[in-house]
């Protein structure tokens, strides 16, 4: 019997080895690099960290440069003009006329969009097998910090994003804490559009309204709900300060009837870089500081 056991022992070892070799092994499930519910309330997922990114949002592009993640940008929209280095990045068209052929040729790992892209275009991009993540340009300046943190996660710049987001929140809190008393506030009208096509300004609930409020001023458009206003409304309000894009200032101040406004007569019309105020971006703070400086000097 002992001899039989000794003879069987090698075969048992061999059988165990064969069974072990052919036993199915369950590979550990790889955790996705990034999962999130985007601004369109869609669950989105990136399995790996994207190395080739296309941004169709000026705000997102600017934040990526702020994060130091610009090397991952292989394409941007025609409206992404800041910082100047964006001129060296391939343009893929505008918000409503995306060049899908150019976009596809860039082989992006992900396309980051803002609020101006249609659902039709989103569907077209995703049909090409390219993930799309919507990060809406926040209407509230405080929301810019959230955008920084999300983009920091996507670009693997979390530490830089956390630092910049904390600095942003601190700056907003400081501006609110040191705002002038209501009785000392100057009324401000921001010229979004003027002339034969109509008069337009920023209503309440927009980031432009918040910029004016953070500067310690009163937004003339704060009492309306639409961007377009009547000329009668403008003259009735007769604002203390008019803020306007620098390229539009001369035409506005020399045109009838705008040249009859109090702010024009008193030379309280101040030019501003459109990139500081027209889109939500880290440069909005420059608009707040400019307006606060001008208002406090009156």
Polypeptide structure, described:
The protein folds into 2 domains: 34-172, Nitrogenase molybdenum iron protein domain (Rossmann fold, 3-Layer(aba) Sandwich); 180-297, 3-Layer(aba) Sandwich (Rossmann fold). Helices cover 41% and strands 14% of the residues. It has helices at residues 2-22, 58-67, 100-105, 119-127, 143-154, 158-177, 207-214, 231-237, 249-254, 262-265, 274-277, 284-297; strands spanning 34-37, 43-46, 53-55, 73-76, 110-113, 132-134, 187-191, 199-200, 218-219, 228-229, 241-245, 269-272. The longest helix has 21 residues, at 2-22. A 4-stranded parallel beta sheet has the order 4-3-5-6, with helices on both faces.
Write the layout of secondary structure elements.
Layout: H1 2-22, E1 34-37, E2 43-46, E3 53-55, H2 58-67, E4 73-76, H3 100-105, E5 110-113, H4 119-127, E6 132-134, H5 143-154, H6 158-177, E7 187-191, E8 199-200, H7 207-214, E9 218-219, E10 228-229, H8 231-237, E11 241-245, H9 249-254, H10 262-265, E12 269-272, H11 274-277, H12 284-297
Parallel strand pairs: 3-4, 3-5, 5-6, 7-9, 7-11, 11-12
Antiparallel strand pairs: 1-2, 8-10
